[in-house]
Amino acid sequence: MTIASTTQLICFVVLSATLVLGSLGVVLLPNIVYSAFLLGGVFLSVAGLYLMLNASFVAAAQVLVYVGAVNVLILFAIMLVNKKETLQAIPGLALRRVLSGAVCAGLFALLIRVAFTTPWPLPGPEPVGEDATIRIGEHLFSDYLLPFELASVLLLIAMIGAIVLARRDVISSDIATGDPVDQGLIEKARTPLLLDRTPR
Amino acid sequence: MVTIPALAQVAQVGLDLEGSFELAMRSLGLSPGAAHLLWLPLPMVLVLVAAVVGVLVNVWLERKISAAVQQRIGPEYAGALGVLQPMADGMKLLFKEDVIPARADGLLFTLGPVLVLVPVILSWLVVPFGQNLLISNVGIGIFLWIALSSIQPIGLLMSGYASNNKYSLLGGLRAAAQSISYEIPLALAVLAVVMMSNSLSTVDIVNQQSGAGILSWNIWRQPVGFVIFWICALAECERLPFDLPEAEEELVAGYQTEYSGMKFALFYLGSYINLVLSALLVSVLYLGGWGFPVPVEWLAGWLGQSVDAPLVQLITASVGIVMTVLKAYLLVFFAILLRWTVPRVRIDQLLDLGWKFLLPIALVNLLVTASLKLAFPMAFGG
User: Fold this and answer.
1) B182 has a pLDDT exceeding 70
2) I want to staple B219 with a disulfide (CB 3.0 to 4.6 A). Which of A32, B34, B94, B286 is the partner?
């Protein structure tokens, strides 16, 4: 066994262990902030696995998109609304847990079966190494053009939806009095007329 | 007398430090694998030391230049001209008591500064000081830096949250918002450069600028991109005028409020290493990296020397390192001057600048670069 393959094995074991333990922690920990931070760790170890598969561009993109954007936004949202509150007890919680555990175990068994019955072509294709970035670009603009464009349309829809939800001028009447609100006022910055609840 | 043939071999293959080191080790009776193992940590340790020394110089410069700006003398007793002052600062932080506040979350409180520092140091992987003088010429090069620097806000949020202090939390949230906002124009500015050099690798980016010395540097072809990148890099480093996450007048010290001792030193080190790193990358992306204003090949030609001669190679490499460091510290000088001349922006102005000004300008810059590349493939790397 050479030094390179030993290092690879150690890295693989460590990354897989962090991945499995981290994702269990994300699901099982009661503290949502810990879950969110662990999610970042899980994303990072997935990036490490990509790196071991010679997909360095995908690994960097994983770090940039999932750790740098998605996970930071999740944390941001949690910390903005992090209010200590005792959650109401849900009826039949034990049964729900058993049911969801059973569903997860079934899915796990199914995936294990797929992993063992699929005839994997081993060893895999030659790694393209540094050319991977160019190859990904070529694929995105040729045979994967439609999924690529559909994904961007999906993101656009999500963005417009977020703007519509966050904009305030969808309220057409004053909350306190019920009078119709002059829409011209809303566009003016720093006019706290809309949500002012004080009686006139 | 083993070393002379080894040196001769070095001269033949150019400055291949790794090869010559392994050759020397093997001549001492080590197996090739062991020689390689001995070589592996060397560049990393060297770069780590370079980064820390860079920070010490940076701290000294900051103290001296700020003193000059305010017509003071600055540190002068610790060593000649106060050069040992940063060491004294470091010693003070090293011996300070390491306090974890009683109601803080100890684990996250400790992990936060580490998560801030590690990505910054990892990014030095792709900083080239010469044709072969970098730790790893990875194909994704500059993209690795962008990806790694996006991990940092997690550390900031973590330490802000774990401190159990409202100023810390606000500082952490501000840091994350700022870092997300300025990452996008930064990446778009880098993308324009990458488009011109057809590669993400930092070595290729520098080589693409090395044709005609100072005239072929990217700053002439990407002036808008240069300004965008510099503004965004300052914002990513949380330097004034963009140091909102630690604005003293509003937030005490932001996410650093509860930190002391070595944990605070990690933040301090991280921010200064990040500043040096950003300056180095500006010089790599826009100022020709290790290139001399007049190409060294021309100089060698005028002096009637062959570029491949061992002595010329050695001089070229030294000039390369000096030029990289010189350009970087020139930019650091400007950053320090900016810090002591420009007032801090407000948080809404900061976000307006990032989203409503820099982002559209960066997109336009990218489109213009793309069309110029199609129209003049000679000048814009066809």
Assistant:
1) yes
2) B286
Residues B263-280 have pLDDT tens digits of: 888 888 888 999 999 999
Structure tokens at B111: 């992990």
Percent of chain B exceeding pLDDT 70 equals 94
Residues 79-98 in B contacting A (C-alpha not used; CB under 8 Å): none
What is the percent of chain B with per-residue pLDDT over 90, rounded to a whole number?
A: 8
Asked whether the beta carbons of residue A67 and residue B146 sit closer than 8 angstroms, the reply is: no
Q: In which band, very low, low, confident or very high, does the pLDDT at A107 lie, cut at 50, 70 and 90? A: very high
Please give the residue of chain B at the shortest CA–CA distance from A72. B154
B362's tokens: 């960066």
Q: How far away is chain B from the Cα of A144, in angstroms, using its nearest Cα?
A: 22
Of A60, A67, A68, the CB nearest to B144: A60
Contacts of B332 (CB under 8 A, 6+ apart): B58, B61, B275, B276, B279
Residue B27 reports pLDDT greater than 60:
yes
**Contact (CB<8Å) B169/A73:** no
Distance in angstroms (rounded) separating the CA atoms of residues B93 and B230: 30
Please report the pLDDT score of residue B8 as a whole number.
41
Instruction: State whether residue B144 sits within 8 Å of chain A by CB.
Output: yes
Backbone angles phi, psi at A173, to 5 degrees: -130, 150
How far apart CA A78 and CA A60 sit, in angstroms, is: 25
Tokens of B124: 């030095």
Residue B114 has pLDDT above 70, yes or no: yes
Return the SS3 of B166: helix
**Is 60 exceeded by the pLDDT of residue A198?**
no
ipTM confidence score: 0.80
**At a CB cut-off of 8 Å and minimum separation 6, what does B186 contact?**
B146, B228, B229, B232, B233, B236
- A165 and chain B in contact, CB less than 8 A: no
Query: CB–CB of A56 and B138 under 8 A?
Result: yes
Q: Pick the residue of B136, B144, B164, B359 with the most A CBs within 10 A to test the interface with A by mutation.
A: B144
- H, E, C per residue of A116-184: HHCCCCCCCCCCCHHHHHHHHHHHHCCCCHHHHHHHHHHHHHHHHHHHHHHCCCCCCECCCCCCECCHH
